[in-house]
Amino acid sequence: MSEQVLRYLQTNRNRLLDNLFSFLKIPSISADSNHRQDIEKAADYIVTYLHDIGFDLAEKQPTNNHPLVYAEYNGAGSQAPTVLLYGHYDVQPADPLELWQSEPFQPEIREGRLFARGASDDKGQVFMHFAVFEAFFKTVGKLPLNVKVCMEGEEEIGSENLYEILYAKKEQFAADFAVISDSGMVAKNQPTILYGLKGFTGLEITVTGPDHDLHSGMYGGAIRNPIMALSHILASMKNKEEIVTVEGFYNDVEPLTEEERALMAKAPSEDFAKAAGVDQTVSEKGYTAVEHTMGRPTFEINGMFGGYQGEGTKTIIPSTATAKITCRLVPGQDPENVQQLLEDHIMKTAPAGVRVHVKKEKLSAKAYKVEPNHPLIKKAAEAYSKAFQSETVYVRMGGSIPVVEWIQALYDIPIVLLGFGTPDDRLHSPNESFPLDSFDKGMETLVYYWQAVGHQG
Amino acid sequence: MSEQVLRYLQTNRNRLLDNLFSFLKIPSISADSNHRQDIEKAADYIVTYLHDIGFDLAEKQPTNNHPLVYAEYNGAGSQAPTVLLYGHYDVQPADPLELWQSEPFQPEIREGRLFARGASDDKGQVFMHFAVFEAFFKTVGKLPLNVKVCMEGEEEIGSENLYEILYAKKEQFAADFAVISDSGMVAKNQPTILYGLKGFTGLEITVTGPDHDLHSGMYGGAIRNPIMALSHILASMKNKEEIVTVEGFYNDVEPLTEEERALMAKAPSEDFAKAAGVDQTVSEKGYTAVEHTMGRPTFEINGMFGGYQGEGTKTIIPSTATAKITCRLVPGQDPENVQQLLEDHIMKTAPAGVRVHVKKEKLSAKAYKVEPNHPLIKKAAEAYSKAFQSETVYVRMGGSIPVVEWIQALYDIPIVLLGFGTPDDRLHSPNESFPLDSFDKGMETLVYYWQAVGHQG
Known about the structure:
The structure is a homodimer. Chain A is an alpha+beta fold. Chain A contains 14 helices and 18 strands. Chain A folds into 2 domains: 2-197 and 367-456, Aminopeptidase; 199-257 and 290-360, Alpha-Beta Plaits, CATH 3.30.70.360. In chain A, 35% of the residues lie in helices and 21% in strands. In chain A, the strands form 5 sheets. The first copy, chain A, has a 6-stranded mixed sheet, sandwiched between helices. The longest helix of chain A has 21 residues, at 436-456.
């Protein structure tokens, strides 16, 4: 059966890529309200696509912000399992635009890669599922299993309404297992099963000194500089050995076992330094970069600003300084608890003469880990290996996907993270891209996987 | 003689204010090349004004950037002294515009203050001289002394071409003494002689980590965060007791004598905390805020930026982070030497995994101190006291006026800093203003002073 499905994908490759191009051309930037219409357009694109290829139902479900696309196929019968397929059709902003080699919303193929915002995160990966479903419908006339599609338009702005809608419509979204394709492989063409994800918490610190920018000559020596105050606070939170120095931060961290460290040492890891263009990696003292990214919590300042940013000098003591911080958490850590520890540390560290305000990020997620030996995981690994002609590796990764935690909390079903991105995809950055190898072999993997789990069901 | 001159100023007050309004309405922002025409317009305004009231010569002198206005009056005869009068007609940028209560370039009088960008720094103070000269010409027909006017259009961008032009035209600008009105009084209506100014040096630090913004989930734990690296560098440069911790920074500092500390304790000082809107002042351990601002070197971060600055979160490890630093120096300190100490410290402190680049600010100045008992200073104090009906105090201030150092270096003549600004003027900030009291009594002071030094000469 898989032969004709795969042949369909090969024969129709150019047309399918054209369809993906149309999808990528829609600048569905969820963070920018100017793109509200594009968000609708991208959602409509999915509804029409799934409806046209043969889904029983495909609709936009309104939320408080951007719509969620829900679709349903029940033609595999009550004996077949039902999968809940999650992805997102919104993308990150494309700025800084001047750093893109081709237009972010004019997809272009160069050197075996498809360049566009969303090519890897997540429209490209989402579209592969649609193409595979199309191939099944057009050849064998049906899908090997029942499918519920949940495509979100708010992933890049924190999935603010997703939990609420999953909770409210718990029965509608109920399934036997879930598949999420919003992640990557440890290296190009290296089949990778992600069995763990990090949790997430964040906050914003604003330090306010004088109520207006002051002349540094008139007031310098009398007034606390808020940027310096913020620098002192930040510098006190992580040391130069990359150890987070916030009291209690590591208290509940589930330690890495020797077995896991061995597994991590074996997993082919990307060359972080080369991919990032730095002369060396740095990681928490006592841990390798791979161990730190996969299995230890991290603390990052994502942005900071205060005072004069123009050319030359402006001799002021600025009024305010702000820093945005996010942490990636590992199993054992509670996001709200960590957030509170951070706030306590900040308030305790704040020097006299300035006011410090902490704005807690509402979105948070616990880390996730699944049993690598579960049959649904094993079958995914087999499909992967068959398509990519290479042994599948098992890894944990530093990213956070809140929906994983929510699906687990609401349904307690196995979640299979089937991702085809690569370390060079430049997610969230200029020149995002996706390898055509991942596109082709990824679709092949999906064909094998649906057949394997469908037959069994 | 002074009676009729003062009467002229009173009678013509509204017209003179109107003239000042016209001058202030020209947005002569030197830092913004979009305002190049306005710079020319402001320079032309001065040329026309001085020419029309009776100067022998008034002209724009071209520089590599914005023109300098030079004017000459020689009618007081060879027995009278010649003063070199310095000021600047350029202004700081007005942003952030939304914080202005009235338009920055639409002058408005509210509660005894004239609000406009440049009202105090320095157009308002410059114009007072023009009005006083006009009053002398229109009443007694001549000025009590010979005058050379040097009005710069680049003060707010570092006076880049001034030294060169003073050096090249040394004879043309030569005078017996210099008067500069680009400073302030320690309190409103408190006659103040500034007998010392701070020097100045600055630099910009750019920390570069990855060559593009990275996904914090994929790379967090392997890559040094440039904002954190910069925070560590900055926090290592000044401690929470406001002591600069850069090795050698205080080596050549001329210590404050007990006499000077007593003088500083006596000088009526503004309420720094109230003026700045903070709950308390902070100053170098062992020194009061007044001592620190007047007589100890300072270190300020004027601006800092890196990574994401928009709303909400963007989970990146940013590619770069930048900080702008300036120091105010006291007698004894060499600007280039201090700059080098700062750079050495920064390079020594930079952690592995990032590249650090230091851009040294070209503009610098040594601190300045003049003998408070010089006759030209004493006469200024007397004129001041007579106009303001209050005893004159002698202070040093934290500001830096590079031209003071250059005039001293080129001519070795006494420099009298006759300033009428007040601590509430909000220089370089939104809602800059200048008290009408300073305008009226300041002009009166100038009338007394020119007569006193003219008679003597």
